[in-house]
Amino acid sequence: MRTITKDVDNTYSRSRLLGGEILISLVGTIGRIAVAPSDLRGANIARALARASIQPPLEAKWVAAWLSGPEMQHRLLMDAREVAQKTLNLGQLRVVPVPVPPVAEQRRIVTQIETLTTKSRRAKEALNAIPALLERFRKSVLAAAFRGDLTADWREKNPDVEPAEELLKRIRTERRRRWEEAELAKMRAKGKVPGDDRWKERYEDPNPAIIDDLHEEWFAARHEQRWGVTPLEAACDPTRGIPYGIVLTGDPDAAGVPTVRCGDIKSFKIDISALKRVARKVADEFARTRLEGDEVLIAIRGTVGATAVATDTMKGMNISREIAMIPLLPGIEPRFVMYLLASPGGQAFLSRHIKGVAQAGINLSDLRAFPLPLPSLDEQREIVSKIEALLQRIDTLARTLDEACLRHSSLDRAILAKAFRGELVPQDPNDEPASLLLERLRVESAENGTTSNGTNRRRKAATPELREAVAKATKLAANPRNRASRSARR
Q1: The pLDDT of residue 212 is above 70
Q2: Kind and range of the H or E element at 188?
Q3: Contact 439, 104 (CB under 8 A)
Q4: Under a CB-based contact definition with an 8 Å cutoff, are residues 340 and 383 in contact?
Q5: How far is residue 141's CA from residue 134's CA, in Å, rounded to a whole number?
Q6: DSSP secondary-structure letter at 163?
Q7: C-alpha 259 chain-centroid distance
């Protein structure tokens, strides 16, 4: 809340608040309504607001509710003029019609509106808390998966699966075979045929000394469930490694190669509908990162850690510099690694290795050293199946939440609309009739020197005829058979 000097406040003393007035926004967002609380007595208002002092027999909260209803909100918006920004004229506001039910009925309706809107607000608070709970659930699912908790029963029922150490041996053998095959092809392409196997000594296994992170809870399964562990690089095709993609993608080329960037990876999926197309000449310089399908992709710049698996339909596409490609060897389920990288433990490892400020990211050397816990292939697939079943349930809950939020967004409007159709509370035949209220308002307006639309005029006392009409209406009101059944409008 801004403060003004006393001189400015005195200049605009007419708009000084006493408490209980209705405040209405006139500029920009038209029609925001509030009743000034009593602790604002003595405060003033900006030019973008109008102040309406409501007098008996009208209740300020009743009028505020009416102005907040869908019918009046639409009218106020339509009455606003568009200049530099939407503005509502005070003259238009003064002639806004207000229904005048009996005072007791006004109060009953306002009480019911407040009761229902309080419940609505609590429901909204509860709905707003659910996304955080769902996110905690997602994290707990992934954490449990890589502790081995989700497949504890499965392991008891399947004791004869291939031991993790045997799987690791097969992976190492396959990795070396691919390296030797590629090296031999390179030598033959140059017209060199090795006379012995000494060239094979150039092969280097990735450094297995990566167990610094194994004190983490997420690696407990390695000891308790006898999972293996290996550097991530050792689980990848040595001819492709773990590289990042195109450094400078250049201007979009409609006939170019679709290229995945970090913003394209969302919720374990790659949105290929709007991939940037990079000129083929540029993409061809990065043939190493040309996708074949089943590679794990991970964002290593900007929002580090978003992961997905390239589908078969993405074959021939490429990736940008913000993305690293992880081409896994047979024996490793790509989605297992994808979820592992997204798990709390995986994200904690990545976060510890983020470097840079202006362009934060993780170095490929750190990603290559990522410690990969490895159960048997069958258990990897079972873990993925369990994760996806639970994530599907979470997604279903999230969709249900979205639907509930959509329905709730119209709830307050529906409450007000029902209130002003007379459907929110029952009418009481003993209430003072609305016609008498209006007559009394006319008398008070005449005595106070104001017209029916609230503008000032020369003060004029109520005539004897008008006073006699009010007295007669009062006598008639004493008889329940003469009471008005519907609200009048002022």
Answers
A1: no
A2: helix 164-189
A3: no
A4: no
A5: 10
A6: P
A7: 27
First-residue to last-residue Cα distance in the chain: 34
- Nearby residues of 278 by Cβ (< 8 Å), 6 or more positions away: 246, 249, 250, 252, 253, 256, 257, 259, 318
Among residues 279, 278, 280, 325, the alpha carbon closest in space to that of 299 is found at: 325
β pairing state of 33-35 and 86-87: unpaired
Evaluate whether 1-96 and 162-375 have a shared fold. Answer: yes
- The class that CATH gives domain 1-96 is alpha beta
Contact present, 372 and 333 (Cβ < 8 Å): no
Listed by start position, the domains of the chain span 1-96, 162-375, 428-490
Exposed, middle or buried: residue 485 (CB in 10 Å: 0-12, 13-18, 19+)? exposed
The CATH number given to 162-375 is 3.90.220.20
What does the pLDDT look like over 191-207, one tens digit per residue? Answer: 888 888 889 999 988 86
* % of the chain exceeding 90 in pLDDT: 62
Cα 269–chain centre separation: 18
DSSP assignment of 461-490: PPPHHHHHHHHHHHHHHTSGGG--SS-EE-
Cα–Cα distance between 248 and 308 in angstroms, integer? 22
Quick: pLDDT tens for 329-356. Answer: 999 999 999 999 999 999 999 999 998 7
Give the pLDDT of residue 101: 86
